[in-house]
Amino acid sequence: MDNNSTIRECMDLVKDFCDARDWEPFHGPKDLAIGISTEAGELLENFRFKSENECRALMGDPARREEIEEELSDVFYFVLRFAQTNDIDLGKALCRKVAEDGEKYPVEKARGKNLKYSEF
What we know:
CATH architecture of the largest domain: Orthogonal Bundle
């Protein structure tokens, strides 16, 4: 796999990894959703109680950056596995979501603002 890997290739990699270990019985929707949340929390721990400048500095430190990349990869792993085991086309779902958000957050109202669509 390389920087040009498709979502499908990533899902297949995760599937093969899990199939080799017979982890299907442990990967129901609830368990995988918990995994997404747990790993996202571990990613967030890196930034807890830090200023924006401290967070940027973390990303510039090679050792800390590697830790953060590992946590982000764990989140991605669980997202891919959730999609793979539940027949979700992530590319299609993402395109649909971006289109919906485009309607909620039109450029002329949302540009440069961090408001929720109901606050415009």
